[in-house]
Q: What sequence folds into this?
């Protein structure tokens, strides 16, 4: 792993901040001043300002997010944060976001590379949402949603859509724009009353009660990494 990634995983700095520490000569690898293009492994001795540091274990976690939690790492209104629910030594962050009142599958990791890849629009992870709506779900509405909707930030990609009951609809999309599902449904005259993400990629919430989390299995992690 690149030295800057190692420092970031150790919680010493962001990757860019780590580059600055390296350039400033504050990082040593096995006793020698670290260089930007150094590769290090867990067997190497890395020191920052003369103190040994070690990279954190990579964690991949699935949380069943409750309503009433923000996905941001700090909140000016002092509301509860999703990270409060995951008490572990490693500094994991949510991959993407769910609204304060949205429940469901939320992935966390300290693997910055994977998180960035998963959040990139070109990566196209399918996300499935169940929405309780106000109004009538007609076949015209289903057609519109499955063809794509014009929103103020552009056309959405076609969604897979299914009626679950008279006022509940399931949508699968791969984009992750801000409040996308609520805005898509609002645009077809179906304001959302409740929103739940039932699936993220191939991960569902089976066995996880609201507020509970679990580590992903090796196979699940490899699948997310596209290996
Ligand atoms: N779309 C929304 O509108 N809200 C969410 O929380 C997730 C997707």
A:
């Amino acid at each position: 792993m690149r030295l800057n990634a190692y420092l970031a995983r150790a919680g010493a700095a962001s990757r860019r901040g780590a580059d600055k520490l390296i350039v400033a000569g504050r990082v040593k690898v096995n006793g020698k001043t670290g260089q930007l293009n150094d590769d290090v492994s867990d067997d190497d001795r890395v020191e920052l300002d003369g103190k040994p540091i070690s990279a954190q274990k990579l964690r991949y976690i699935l949380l069943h997010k409750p309503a009433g939690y923000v996905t941001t790492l700090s909140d000016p209104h002092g509301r509860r944060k999703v990270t409060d629910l995951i008490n572990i030594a490693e500094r994991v962050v949510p991959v993407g976001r769910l609204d304060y009142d949205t429940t469901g599958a939320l992935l966390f990791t300290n693997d910055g590379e994977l998180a960035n890849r998963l959040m990139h629009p070109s990566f196209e992870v399918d996300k499935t949402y169940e929405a309780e709506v106000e109004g009538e779900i007609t076949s015209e509405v289903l057609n519109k949603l499955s063809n794509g909707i014009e929103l103020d930030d552009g056309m959405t990609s076609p969604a897979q859509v299914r009626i679950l009951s008279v006022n509940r609809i399931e949508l699968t999309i791969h984009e992750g724009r801000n409040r996308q599902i609520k805005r898509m449904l609002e645009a077809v005259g179906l304001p959302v009353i409740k929103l739940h993400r039932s699936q993220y990629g191939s991960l569902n919430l089976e066995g996880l009660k609201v507020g509970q989390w679990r580590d992903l299995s090796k196979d699940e992690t490899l699948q997310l990494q596209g290996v």
About this structure: The chain has three domains: 3-53, 60-121+203-224, 126-200. The chain has six helices and 15 strands. Residues 98-99, 102, 179-182, 195 surround uracil (CB under 6 Å). Residues 46 and 52 are 6 Å apart (CA to CA).
